[in-house]
Amino acid sequence: MPWIQLRIHSSSEHAEALSDLLLEEGSVSITFEDGKDTPIFEPKLGETPLWADTVVVALFDAGTDLTPTVEMLKQQPFLEGKLNYKIEQIEDKDWVREWMDSFHPIQFGKRLWICPSWREIPEPEAVNVILDPGLAFGTGTHPTTALCLEWLDGLELQGKQLVDFGCGSGILAVAGLKLGATNAIGIDIDYQAIDASRDNAKRNGVDDKLSLYLPEDQPKDIQADVLVANILAGPLRELAPLIAELVRPGGKLALSGLLQEQAEEIREFYAQWFEMDEAVHKEDWSRLTGVRK
């Protein structure tokens, strides 16, 4: 069915109040968007911050007369009589098909492809990981995930045990197994990530080689040949001693989820346990690698 969309330029201070008012007026959904391309890379735990310039997008049935709604909003004291808005007709589309069409197979390194299940595999003889985008977990499209996949593709993984620390979708563990790792362990604090990793391992026929744990349940004697942690700078620093303990002497490490300006600090911190390489960058993000002393 067709829709009508009301876009209001607002602020982090007033976005929630506008959302409540628009829902009372009959909006079927509210979306907050970044108004000036100022991404929030690493919010504090438990926080869901908004952008200083936030666009509030409200969706209504196409037959809705928005004139009374606009007039009501103009009378709100916190807006001081100023309302920067735009009303748009939204074309009736097959939105599921639109979303699916935006994902394509992507190659990482020389051997590895990540392929949505509904797309034809471009190179059947390559190492193909079938992974459907879903939830908020890695699909390979983000630079941090791409950096890790490219690193894994360049390793000799036969006979190795891999740990995917903060496994999310399980993309790195599954890719490592399909690239030749003997077995893999995925660890994540989110039970939904555990479920997503298990499902993706089954889809790729490697579920018998992947063990998944919440942190409180993980074995105490893990000694990984290869460990990859694609999380964020704060947790990487906080959990560094634990991560180091999971890697055997001579084992390889990759860290990602780092902004370029954070990389050197984390590199120097991990040098306590690892012989660290120079950072590798993609867009605003970095990857660090090293070998356990």
TrEMBL record:
Gene3D superfamilies: Vaccinia Virus protein VP39. It holds the Pfam family PrmA. The keyword S-adenosyl-L-methionine applies. Keywords: Cytoplasm, Methyltransferase, Ribonucleoprotein, Ribosomal protein, S-adenosyl-L-methionine, Transferase. One of its GO terms (cellular component) is ribosome. Transmembrane segments: none annotated. Its EC number is 2.1.1.-. GO terms for biological process: methylation. It comes from the Bacteria. S-adenosyl-L-methionine binds at T145, G166, D188, N230. GO terms for molecular function: methyltransferase activity. It is an enzyme of class 2 (transferase). It is found in: Cytoplasm. It catalyses: L-lysyl-[protein] + 3 S-adenosyl-L-methionine = N(6),N(6),N(6)-trimethyl-L-lysyl-[protein] + 3 S-adenosyl-L-homocysteine + 3 H(+). InterPro entries: Ribosomal_L11_MeTrfase_PrmA (IPR050078), Ribosomal_PrmA_MeTrfase (IPR004498), SAM-dependent_MTases_sf (IPR029063). Belongs to the methyltransferase superfamily. PrmA family. PANTHER family: ELECTRON TRANSFER FLAVOPROTEIN BETA SUBUNIT LYSINE METHYLTRANSFERASE. Methylates ribosomal protein L11. This is Ribosomal protein L11 methyltransferase.
